[in-house]
């Protein structure tokens, strides 16, 4: 039985009719192909036709840590990051962040951001819903990296030498990308990231916007690993 917003989306937006198939995910990489049997009550009674392994999930994991950006720019990053395959997303405040939400606003934003992630995951057929964490400081965000054992790649426009490609070649299958705010990272933040073992890299000779850099890194990663 499918109810609530998902039923509304299937019936009113996608115009699902009785007898037609749709996919339900268990959010743990199994998809169920279902047939709508009864749609009369605004909900969907369905029968499972078959189950299969979700194809959108992959053999490596990638975690995007992006500075919180103003207004809809953060929404954009979340939506596109899910499409590009991010498995986890973290947002953090950095020294040069233009925004900082109080507790009530942050909770409201968190709900909105989780909804954006859920909708994006559904739309692009993901088998898992990426989790979202909001870190109060750069330091806490960096400390959390040490606990997870991921290979951390830190995008810094003033990095000379190592490129994203070099870092990807030297990394394993649990990756983490860190992207700064509109004003860029502070020198002390770069020093802390290096000290924590992050691979500081350039994304090329053009300066990308703060809302572009993470998606750009994820796209390069997909190209290297999947295409
Ligand atoms: N400090 C810059 C712009 C920061 S761009 C300025 O104001 O001129 C925002 C973020 O995107 C940076 O913190 C960095 O993480 C990432 N970024 C953008 N272009 C990049 C590049 N060419 N190489 C590496 N990182 C880049």
Q: Helix-strand pattern, N to C?
A: HEEEEHEHEHEHEHEH
Average pLDDT, to the nearest integer? 96
Spans of at least 5 consecutive residues whose pLDDT stays below 50 are: none
In whole angstroms, the N-to-C terminal distance is 37 Å
CATH-derived topology of the largest domain: Alpha/beta knot
In the sheet with the most strands, the strands line up as 6-5-4-8-7-9
Gyration radius, in Å: 20 Å
User: Fraction of residues in helices?
Assistant: 25-40%
The CATH architecture of the largest domain can be named as 3-Layer(aba) Sandwich
Q: Helical element count? A: 7
User: By CATH's scheme, which homologous superfamily of the largest domain applies?
Assistant: SPOUT methyltransferase, trefoil knot domain
Shape: elongated
Major sheet description: 6 strands, parallel
- The percentage of residues in β strands lies in 15-25%
Bound molecules: S-adenosyl-L-homocysteine
Task: Chart the SSEs and their pairings.
Elements: H1 4-13, E1 21-25, E2 30-38, E3 45-53, E4 61-67, H2 72-83, E5 88-92, H3 103-123, E6 131-135, H4 138-148, E7 151-155, H5 164-170, E8 174-179, H6 187-195, E9 199-201, H7 210-225
Parallel strand pairs: 4-5, 4-8, 5-6, 7-8, 7-9
Antiparallel strand pairs: 1-2, 2-3
Helix pairs in contact: 2-3, 2-7
Task: Please describe what this structure looks like.
The chain has seven helices and nine strands. It is an alpha/beta fold and 227 residues long. Helix 2 runs parallel beside helix 7. It has two domains: 50 residues, Hypothetical PUA domain-like, domain 1 (Ribosomal Protein L25, Chain P), CATH 2.40.240; 165 residues, Alpha/beta knot (3-Layer(aba) Sandwich), CATH 3.40.1280. The longest helix has 21 residues. The chain has a six-stranded parallel beta sheet with strand order 6-5-4-8-7-9, with helices on both faces. A three-stranded antiparallel beta sheet has the order 1-2-3, with no helix packed on it. Bound molecules: S-adenosyl-L-homocysteine. The site of S-adenosyl-L-homocysteine has 16 residues, from helix 7. S-adenosyl-L-homocysteine binds next to helix 7.
